[in-house]
């Protein structure tokens, strides 16, 4: 194992709440002794998959970490899962009232109400918490959490166009145990950027901000048809958010929001229009703090890269799209990546184009059949093949408002499927990308307008390793201003499909990752954490994968039907390590599972009696992981230095 744990590391072990007071005191004494020991290695040990109704309906871990010290001492330490809150919990202070954590607010900051049952109006409450960022500002700690969508209203009807939200909570950390709790919480105001579309995954920057997402951007071409789903969805959003249907504009949504939090806990929001509009799963910044990669969720999607003009500033830069050149099919597949420059732009330039009232038909000419001068395009932006040509002078609008369509016209590959989470391994110059379901457009397609990707079908998905290199040129032989350009990719962690369901209803091997989604990498622990969004596992899991030893360990199970979300490795927060981890829509699609190992009716009833079916989601974290303080070779960022100076100043006062 590569030695990533430097000499002089400290530990903070979390005590079990079930210990007696005397045992707790003795435990604290042992922790203090261990905290001065030097660590040789930390290895995760896997937990058993749940096979009883009691375990299938809860979020829990029985996994452990084996810590080997320099003096030869070895200790097996239990992991813990702590829930901070449920999305239905009224923890948010909003205009003098307490509202549920997962309730969206409108342009005026008022909670959006569900009036589908006129005699019983209530708050909308998302059952889908997702991305988390933990930000330390001075002596305060804050967490930003996404609330992705609400599945249905109180009348049991499917919801279309409901605005989404983020919640900012200030956290307290117990100085002895490291346990976190919510001190206070507020909704984040998105009124300056026309509200928030579905936020999926996200990331935390080195300079102390949160990068969110807006997934499944509405089809601007279909929006012109008032009978289309796109028109109804965006118009419903405008009615819910602005109380004004005339403000509906599909080009307002599908972007990357960046959220900053001041030292006194005040959030501010911008949307980075120059990073391109598509189905943003997330944005992952690479180690130079100017290059970024994106997940583009859906079928027939595209791999994008952005290189900012200045480090730590994504208000202007160059957008690229990848041409995939397949090199193999072993272990999921492999290929080289060549980058096509779409254009350079600034947030202000692109925002001005949107504000001008531009429409799809202002940007493209279209025909309904193959025509000379038009390109056949098949992307996630539209249900069918399109024949498109960019109108003169509209190249910049096409590049940033419709980068998939424009990228395909220029030759980029629009065949990725369910491109989800991303993580970066700075020391090894690697990035990781989750392809949740490797099927459909990633298989060989007879008669397709484009067939760059012809990989084996692996329904349970593949996590890919991307090799980051410098001195790369784009498709036009112009140097790319980055030393972290993905030059190739290869299968890294694979699922295994089953030919028929097992007795618990799994259709993928339960001892391997199925349908990877959230990814997060810990440099200190040399570990890639993987969260599942799987229909193929009856219970979804969070995994720890040592990228050197290739050891895979199951470290968390979430309730039956739920997705494991909000994954974020937090290294060394005041001498404690955490893995933030949420779950959403518990109990979903339970009726579709072929389960014989337990009574399915009893399982469903137990789910109803605990969390309910798709009524709420949970926000929490895994603890018990050794806390690490790197003293050798660690160069503090300017944000760390400012925070330490402010904390010292606050302590003096």
Radius of gyration: 24 Å
Gap between N and C termini: 45 Å
Tell how many strands the DSSP assignment holds. Answer: 35
The secondary-structure class comes to: mainly beta
Name the strands of the widest sheet in spatial order: 17-18-19-20-21-28-27-26-25
Helix content: 10-25%
**Unreliable stretches covering 5 or more consecutive residues:** 1-32, 629-653
How much β-strand is present in the residues? Answer: 35-45%
Largest sheet, described in full?
Answer: 9 strands, antiparallel
Average the pLDDT over all residues and give the rounded result.
91
Number of helices: 10
Shape descriptor reads globular
Protein name: DUF839 domain-containing protein
Describe the 3D structure.
The chain has 653 residues and is mainly beta. It contains 10 helices and 35 strands. The strands form 9 sheets. It has a 9-stranded antiparallel β-sheet. Strand 7 (113-114) and strand 8 form a beta hairpin. Helix 7 (395-401) packs across helix 8. The two termini are 45 Å apart.
In short:
With 653 residues, the chain is mainly β.
